[in-house]
Specification:
Shape: elongated
CATH superfamily of the largest domain: von Willebrand factor, type A domain
Strand content: 25-35%
Radius of gyration: 34 Å
Number of strands: 22
Number of domains: 4
């Protein structure tokens, strides 16, 4: 009985009916003949209430279940399905209130659905997470009313369901097409085996004029009594590392996402393209210390390792130690590699404190520094000047924009590749830079 009372709710129509009856009683004070008819209205009203109570509570007439995906994709639209099945013999009206995870900060969720007798229906709604981690759903509340619509019965389903939000695998799949080599569709092209001095040994052959004397194999020469040289083939699987700066400079938010999350989503999509291109991918995440480092591998299943590693990356409130990064790279990455460094510089002075370490890294590897345009400053730089404050704001914004260009120029002068991009364009610009480097044969 207590459970029945707890699940019973009154509708807006019920209170309107009560207000109307009260008005009739008030009018009957001056028109005494109306008093008896008002009691008839009250009696009919009570009959309607009893009838609807009997219709709603005579049996368990509704079943609902929330269908969650295995994981959500961060910063993308994700869909949640609710399956409904009515056991009532009459048409019902439903109000669905799902207790969404606290991360969404949405307290006005409401869906209205109509079901015919014994009908099954699936309804869908969408959510957009902007933080990685575990999201816990509460109860799925369904409020059912009959065509009379004076009472509602509450049903509760699927309490305490949870789903994990991973880096944007939807964005990763979106850019899959960039891994397709357009040259495959060109007729008449012939694969050429290029001779190089990388780590992939091919064969020992007799020396001919023009061969590099540094490749001379003296042991084989002594055995055969003629000059022999080692021949190498260009390494097909190039090691590529995504290096993510997780210090406080990456905590700045743009369009609800932190810069770190933009970098993480880009790393996942970029690593997927590199693996499909036949390269080896690895990952380094650092701040004041090296937090995570996974070596470069070329296995397709290695993408899951990268995905699970990126899931747990978070920003720190400390400055990044580029000296430690340079020492770690020197000690652990022996082969010349492509290093994609995700960081941010807001002022030329912040770059100059780190430029020596970046130069040292660039001497041994192909370094690409990826940092961000401040899109909020773009708005200030183009505002219409109406007073002195607007003039100051515009001048400062343009000064910061100029500093970004100086940073690009100084890095390029030191032989360091750069990508300066708006946060929302990071993924496609990073992939395009990688494809450009591959096409030019820089590594």
């Amino acid at each position: 009985m207590i459970q029945t009372i707890k699940s019973l709710y009154l509708t807006e129509r019920f209170f309107k009916a009560i207000a109307f009856i009260a008005f009739l009683f008030l009018v009957s004070y001056w028109f005494e003949g109306l008093f008896g008819y008002v009691w008839i209205v009250v009696f009919i009203f009570m009959l309607f209430i009893l009838a609807e109570f009997s219709m709603l509570f005579s049996k368990k007439g509704l079943h609902a279940s929330r269908l969650l995906p295995e994981r959500f994709s961060n910063s993308d639209i994700n869909y949640v399905q609710v399956k409904l099945k009515s056991a009532y013999s009459f048409k019902t009206k439903l109000q669905l209130i799902d207790e969404l995870p606290v991360q969404f900060q949405k307290r006005d969720f409401l869906m209205k659905v109509s079901l015919q007798g014994s009908e099954q229906k699936t309804v869908t709604y969408d959510v957009r997470p902007v933080d990685r981690g575990s999201y816990s759903f509460g109860k799925l509340n369904c409020y059912v009313s009959s065509p009379i619509t004076l009472l509602k019965r509450r049903y509760t389903f699927d309490a305490n369901a949870s789903v994990k939000v991973y880096p944007s695998f939807i964005q990763m799949k979106k850019y899959d097409f960039l891994a397709i080599d357009s040259k495959l569709s060109h007729f008449g092209l012939k694969k050429i085996r290029r001779i190089g001095h990388t780590m992939e040994f091919e064969q020992i052959k007799e020396y001919v004029t023009g061969d590099d004397l540094r490749s001379m194999n003296w042991n084989a020469t002594a055995k055969s009594s003629q000059l022999m040289v080692n021949q190498y083939q260009d390494q097909k699987m190039q090691p590529i590392f995504s290096i993510i700066d997780s210090s406080r400079v990456m905590k700045m938010p743009f369009e609800e996402l932190k810069l770190l999350d933009y970098a993480i989503n880009s790393t996942l999509a970029f690593s997927n393209i590199a693996l499909k291109k036949g390269d080896k991918v690895g990952l380094i995440e650092f701040s004041n210390k090296i937090n995570k480092m996974i070596p470069a591998r070329a296995k397709r299943t290695y993408l899951n390792t990268i995905l699970n590693t990126l899931y747990n990356v978070d920003t720190h409130f400390l400055d990044s130690d580029y000296g430690l990064l340079q020492a770690t790279i020197k000690r652990n990455i022996n082969q010349r590699s492509l290093l994609m460094l995700y960081t941010n510089f807001e002022h030329i002075s912040s770059l100059r404190r780190k430029i020596n370490y970046l130069q040292a890294i660039a001497k041994r590897h192909l370094l690409v520094v990826i940092f961000f345009e401040n899109t909020e400053l773009d708005k200030l730089a183009n505002i219409e000047i109406k007073n002195t404050v607007d003039l100051y704001d515009q001048t400062l914004a343009r000064q910061f924009q100029y500093d970004k260009k100086l940073i690009v120029k100084e890095l390029n002068q030191k032989g360091i590749q750069t990508v300066l991009t708006a946060p929302q364009d990071l993924t496609v610009n990073t992939i395009n830079k990688y494809l450009e480097i591959k096409a030019r044969g820089l590594i």
